[in-house]
Design a protein that fits this description.
The structure holds two protein chains of two kinds. By secondary structure, chain A is an alpha+beta fold. Chain A contains 23 helices and 22 strands. Chain A folds into five domains: 128 residues, Four Helix Bundle (Hemerythrin (Met), subunit A) (Up-down Bundle); 128 residues, Histidine kinase CheA-like, P2 response regulator-binding domain (Alpha-Beta Plaits, 2-Layer Sandwich); 54 residues; 182 residues, Histidine kinase-like ATPase, C-terminal domain (Heat Shock Protein 90); 130 residues, CheA-289, Domain 4 (OB fold (Dihydrolipoamide Acetyltransferase, E2P), Beta Barrel), CATH 2.40.50. By secondary structure, chain B is of the alpha+beta class. Helices cover 16% and strands 49% of the residues of chain B. In chain B, the strands form three sheets. In chain B, strands 8-1-2-13-12-9 form a six-stranded mixed sheet. The chains are: A alpha+beta, B alpha+beta.
């Protein structure tokens, strides 16, 4: 069977399960008595094992198998959780994660699992009674038997059965009856498949068929001799079940036996059945595998609400198509205005409204909750805190806040960096905290929220805060700051130094955050996403990093301006306001034209000069139109001829030929079909 | 069809005119031929980069081939065309005086480029094809579209 088509699904689902395991393990650590949580973890581990075995990732399967054994003991109260066991399980989960990553990158997912496997085994044998041990051995023995019994698929088959076993056990606990039923059809039966169908129909009206041998598909295709076996869960008594089936015509014999829930005995029995089945029809067993797996997958999707998985590329295509529409919308609006025919204008207006709604929907379709990124942090913080011997509590707020998928994919690493930074440099050791009169356990808050067209993510710790003098000293040492200017720097400016390249304040280069890459990487990354990051800190009380991100990367609001005969777009996100000044209000400072804007001296940048725009010879007014833009705390005034207006524009790249054009971040297509360049204000502010 | 051509050994080229010379580019590298439309100037780029156009929703850079080959520039006319070519990941429009023919050239009619042809440096040429009464200069688009110069410009500015 070609596995490639299932590989994506496998990877996606593995990641989901690993995530679920990680989250649940953390819950379990705080609430070790909760059997429900253990059950959840067990189920995820079990599914993982089944999937990995089916896909032929043996190492992963064997490791999950061992982990599952341990979990099984825990959930049956035969083993008490302690932190050693937790650590071993966490390690195993990490290893599995590594394997999934390896598979994702095209590897075969193999890894040395002998050590964790040995540890897990030690846990199982060390704390578990001898009887159980024997039982376990028997079970393993029976598995081997199956494997020897015929095909490579023995392993998988066993997996499936253990899954059924779990279900069976659960239903038994819920007070259901478990039956093993063997139905034999009459020899002269003509439509065997139809009869089998009727039997199943009857059974399903009374309960649930856990497993059938041969598989349902084979039964439907009449690929069986005269008899088939099912494992059945029902609330009804044995007699009733037997009678119901016997009532169907052309049935020769019905055998119904209650299934014993003794672990070893049952497994052995199941194994026997399998051996029989495998020996009788190895090919059939093999075929049964795929559909059975698919069924569970389908079930899960439907259970998870009315959602479907859509390839992100399709959404990208949809977005591109819609961008075309936005351009045409602009063109239509312009035409309608020019023609001034009211009917046309009404229609165009209506279309604009609808396409506006459409735009919202398409944009929200690409939105995913930041939870996807956030939910791997609790685990990370836990491990780091352990390594650093610190006590830290991570509080997450606003995990439901949504961001564009492309942003989500990119934001993980910078956040990891900031969190590590907070934990390593921010939060003090318990002893230091006690001394400072703070609770021993530090708190890191990770908060996401919407504001206007932006999403903000805040990483806040209640640690020692930034030591300004140390930062300044370091900056001077590294030559980032001129000692002469050092005194004149504001607090904020000093904090900003943390983001300059080649800066790291940790005195000891630690494994956690001092890896030679500093906060400058975080800043660059976030700016490349069209966002920015700032830091604020109060000595002794903590530090806050604030990341501002655009909601989406493909359609932005911009102000269109005219300079001579050329049109440019300035992203609204960097505009503070627009203003008109008289010529005599312009002053000179250091051969630089400046204006007084609300009490601040703001340098003027002439777009005509910077962009070498040819003069069109039009008369000059006494007034200049200025767009005040900002980059962080700094401001500049872009001198233009006139403001055209605000518009939603679609970002387009200039292509691969024109790279790194100065102060131009891209282009957009205007309503009249012409291209307008988008100004990169960051490049214009020094 | 294609195989037959291979056997005879012909290349199909789009013929265009620059000044008084005729040039050819492999038809496989040509995406379309457009009439001149509004070009948006991109500031601080080399002089031969005329700007960008909206090519059915794709922002496409435009190069003036006369300027690229250091021929004197003239005003654009009715016959001026933009040939959109694609080489690898690059998609660029070339402004030419006229584009009006597609012809098959037997491979054996192509000769290696002489040192200087019409002032165009040999590096930009793939060869010269002699056809009855015409002389056709075949361009090496990889070289013509090399954006080394643009990258160099950056490093000066940066």
């Amino acid at each position: 069977m070609d596995m490639n088509q299932y590989l994506d699904m496998f990877i996606e689902e593995s990641k989901e399960h690993l995530q679920a395991i990680n989250a649940n393990l953390l819950v379990l650590e705080n609430d070790p008595e909760s059997t429900q949580i253990v059950n959840e973890i067990f189920r995820s581990a079990h599914t993982l094992k089944g999937m990995s075995a089916t896909m032929g990732f043996e190492d992963m399967a064997s490791l999950t198998h061992e982990a599952e054994n341990v979990l099984d003991l825990i959930r049956n109260d035969k083993l008490k959780i302690n932190s050693d066991i937790m650590d071993v399980i966490f390690q195993s989960v990490d290893l599995i994660e590594g394997m999934v990553m390896n598979i994702m990158e095209g590897g075969d997912g193999s890894a040395d699992v002998s050590q964790p496997v040995a540890k897990l085994r030690a846990i199982v044998s060390g704390d578990f009674s001898a009887i159980a041990n024997v039982a376990a051995q028997e079970a393993t023995a029976s598995v081997e038997q199956v494997a020897a019994g015929g095909s490579e698929d023995g392993n998988r088959e066993y997996d499936l059965d253990e899954f059924s076993l779990t279900v069976l056990k659960q239903s038994k606990e819920a007070g259901n009856n478990l039956f093993w039923i063997k139905v034999t059809l009459q020899e002269n039966c003509l439509l065997k498949a139809a009869r089998a169908y009727m039997v199943f129909d009857q059974l399903e009206s009374m309960g649930e068929v856990i497993k059938s041998t041969p598989a349902v598909e084979d039964l439907e295709n009449e690929r069986f001799d005269l008899s088939f076996e099912v494992v059945f869960v029902t609330m009804e008594p044995l007699e009733k079940v037997k009678k119901a089936i016997s009532n169907i015509s052309e049935i020769e014999e019905v055998l119904v036996e209650p299934v014993e829930m003794k672990e070893a005995g049952k497994q052995a029995k199941q194994a026997e059945q399998q051996v029989a089945a495998a020996a009788a029809a190895p090919a059939e067993v093999k075929k049964a595998e795929g559909p059975a797996q698919n069924n569970t997958a389908v079930k899960k999707v439907t259970a998870g609400g009315k959602t479907i998985r859509v390839d992100i590329e399709r959404l990208d295509v949809l977005m591109n198509l819609f961008s075309e529409l936005v351009i045409d919308r602009g063109r239509l609006e312009q035409l309608a205005r020019e023609l001034g025919k009211s009917e046309l204008q009404e229609t165009v207006e209506h279309m604009s409204r609808i396409s506006g709604d459409l735009q919202n929907i398409i944009l929200t379709m690409r939105m995913v909750p930041v939870e996807q990124v956030f939910n791997r942090f609790p685990r990370m913080i836990r491990d780091l805190a352990k390594d650093l011997n610190k006590k830290v509590n991570l509080e997450i707020y606003g995990a439901e806040t949504e961001l564009d998928r492309t942003v989500i994919d990119e934001i993980g690493d910078p956040l990891v960096h900031l969190l590590r930074n907070s934990l390593d440099h921010g939060v003090e050791s318990p002893a230091q905290r006690k001394q400072a009169g703070k609770p021993e356990e530090g708190t890191i808050q990770l908060r996401a929220f919407h504001s206007g067209n932006h999403v903000f993510i805040e990483v806040k710790d209640d640690g020692a805060g930034i030591n300004k003098d140390k930062v300044l000293k370091k900056a001077i040492e590294r030559g980032i700051v001129n000692p002469a200017n050092a005194d004149s720097l504001s607090d904020r400016q000093i904090f900003e130094l943390l983001f300059s390249s080649g800066f790291s304040t940790a005195e000891v280069i630690s494994d956690i955050s001092g890896r030679g890459v500093g906060l400058d990487v975080v800043k660059t990354k976030i700016e490349s996403l069209g966002g920015n990051v700032s830091v604020d800190s109060v000595r002794g009380q903590g530090t806050t990093f604030l990341i501002q991100l655009p909601l989406t990367l493909s359609i932005i609001s911009a102000m269109l301006v005219q300079v001579q005969n050329e049109k440019y777009a300035v992203p609204l996100s960097s505009i503070i306001e627009t203003a008109v000044f008289r010529k005599d209000q312009i002053m000179m400072a250091h051969r630089q034209k400046v204006i007084d804007f609300r009490g601040r001296v703001v340098p003027l940048v002439s777009l005509q000069e910077i962009f070498q725009i040819p003069d069109n010879g039009a008369d000059k007014d006494d007034e200049v139109a200025v767009v005040i833009v900002r980059k962080g705390e700094k401001m500049a005034g872009l001198v233009v001829d006139s403001f055209i207006g605000q518009q939603e524009i679609v970002l387009k790249s200039l292509g691969k030929y024109l790279v790194n054009v100065f102060a131009i971040s891209g282009a957009t297509i205007l309503g009249d079909g012409q291209v307008a360049l988008i100004i990169d204000c960051n490049a214009l502010i020094k | 069809m294609l195989e037959q051509k291979e056997i005879i050994g012909e290349v199909k080229v789009i013929v265009f005119r620059l000044k008084d010379e005729e040039y050819g580019v492999d038809v496989n590298q040509v995406k379309s031929i457009e009439k001149l439309e509004h070009i948006t100037r991109v500031p601080r780029t080399p002089a031969f980069v005329k700007g960008v156009i909206n090519l059915r929703g794709v922002v496409t850079p435009i190069i003036d081939l006369r300027n690229r080959f250091s021929l004197e520039e003239t005003a654009y006319t009715e016959s001026t065309r933009i040939i959109i070519v694609a080489v690898g990941e690059l998609e660029v429009g070339l402004i030419v005086d006229a584009a009006n023919d597609v012809i098959d050239i037997p491979v054996n009619a192509i000769e290696p480029p002489p040192e200087v042809v019409g002032g165009v440096e040999a590096a930009y040429l793939r060869g010269v094809a002699k056809l009855e009464k015409r002389l056709l200069i075949l361009l090496n688009l990889d070289k013509v579209l090399s954006n080394e110069e643009i990258k160099q410009l950056d490093s000066f500015e940066g």
